[in-house]
Design brief:
This protein has helices at about 5-15, 30-45, 70-80, 90-95, 110, 115, 120-135, 150-160, 190-195, 200-210, 215-230, and strands at about 1-5, 20-25, 45-50, 85-90, 140-145, 165-170, 235-245, 260-265, 270-275. By secondary structure, the chain is of the alpha/beta class. Bound molecules: adenosine monophosphate.
Length: about 280
C-alpha cells in the first residue's frame, strides 16, 4: 500500500493505475462502516484508492474540527489489511493552498435538512469531493447511505459538472442494537450510548406504520418525533423528515420511494440517520 501526501504524486499514480480505479473518500477514524465501503470497492476495482482528510471547509465555526477523532496509524493498518493500493493523506495546504478561492455550491438539494442545520457544510463537502474526484479521476467513487443527503448532493454535482464518475452508494452498517456506526459515536458517554438506539427505533416506527398502510407524511413525522421524545437523553430534535427519496422535497403523501431522515442532539454530538421506504 502506497501512502501519498503530495497531490501531484497522487494524480500521477492514479493516471498510471490499472483500471477500473475505485475511490473511497473518508475523514479517517475508520470503523466497520468505512470498511464495508472499502470491501465492496475492492471487489469491483483493479486499483483501489482511499483518502483520509478531515476537511476543515465542511465544519461550521461552532463545530469541533480540532476535536474530531483522529488515529492515522490505526487507519492505515486497517486500509492495508483491507487491500487498499493507494491512500492519499494530504495536509490542509495540499488541498487548500494559499490563494485557494473556488467553491462548489449545489443548489436546492443542499439547502435542506443537514444543509439547513449546518450552513456551509455541503459547500465544503461538494468542494472537497470535486477536488478529490478531479485529482484522482476514478471510474467509481463509493459513499455510504448513512449520509443520504450527501450522496444525493454528490450525484448532482457529478452530473452537473460532467465529472464522468459512477457514484456507488453502499448500505448503512449498524451495531447489533441498530445504532448506525459513526466516527462521532466516540463522543457518546456510556449512558448516551445506551440511549442512542432510540434513533433507529424511531425510524423503524415509521417503517412499521408505512408497512401497515400509513401514507400521510405528517403522521409519519409525528410518530417518529414521539418515539424520539420517549428518550429523555434526546436533548433536541433538529429535524424529522419524510421526503421524496430523489429530490428530498418534504412529502404530504408517500406515493413513491421516500427517505425518512432525522438529526437529534444526544449529548455533545448530533446523530443523524435515515431509512428508505420503498
Ligand atoms: P466520514 O469519514 O464520516 O466522512 O465517512 C466516509 C464515508 O463512509 C462516507 O461516504 C460515509 O457515508 C460512509 N459511512 C460512514 N458511516 C457509515 C456507516 N455506518 N455505514 C456505511 N457507510 C458509512
Amino acid at each position: 500500500m502506497r501512502v501519498v501526501t503530495d497531490r501531484q504524486e497522487m494524480a500521477q499514480l492514479c493516471r498510471e493505475a490499472r483500471r477500473p480505479l475505485g475511490l473511497v473518500p473518508t475523514m479517517g477514524a475508520l470503523h466497520r462502516g468505512h470498511l464495508a465501503l472499502v470491501e465492496q470497492a475492492r471487489r469491483e476495482s483493479a486499483t483501489l484508492a482511499a483518502t483520509i482528510f478531515v476537511n476543515p471547509a465542511q465544519f461550521g465555526p461552532q463545530e469541533d474540527l480540532a476535536g474530531y477523532p483522529r488515529d492515522l496509524e490505526h487507519d492505515l493498518e486497517l486500509l492495508k489489511s483491507a487491500g487498499v493500493d493507494l491512500v492519499y493523506v494530504p495536509a490542509v495546504e495540499q488541498v487548500y493552498p494559499p490563494g485557494f478561492d473556488t467553491w462548489v455550491e449545489v443548489g436546492r438539494l443542499a439547502s435542506r435538512l443537514e444543509g439547513a442545520r449546518r450552513p456551509g457544510h455541503f459547500r465544503g463537502v461538494a468542494t472537497v469531493v470535486t477536488k478529490l474526484l478531479s485529482l484522482t479521476r476514478p471510474d467509481r467513487a463509493y459513499f455510504g447511505q448513512k449520509d443520504a443527503q450527501q450522496t444525493r448532493v454528490i450525484k448532482q454535482l457529478v452530473r452537473d459538472l460532467d465529472l464522468g464518475v459512477e457514484v456507488v452508494v453502499a448500505p448503512t452498517v449498524r451495531e447489533p442494537d441498530g445504532l448506525a456506526l459513526s466516527s462521532r459515536n466516540a463522543y457518546l458517554t456510556t449512558e448516551q450510548r445506551r440511549a442512542a438506539p432510540v434513533v433507529y427505533r424511531a425510524l423503524c416506527r415509521a417503517e412499521q406504520l408505512w408497512q401497515r398502510g400509513e401514507r400521510e407524511g405528517g403522521r409519519l413525522r409525528r410518530e417518529v418525533r414521539m418515539a424520539l421524545q420517549s428518550e429523555r437523553l434526546v436533548e433536541e430534535i433538529d429535524y424529522v423528515s419524510v421526503a421524496d427519496a430523489a429530490t428530498l422535497e418534504e412529502l404530504d403523501r408517500v406515493a413513491g420511494p421516500a427517505l425518512v431522515s432525522l438529526a437529534v442532539k444526544l449529548g455533545a454530538p448530533h446523530l443523524i440517520d435515515n431509512i428508505t421506504l420503498e
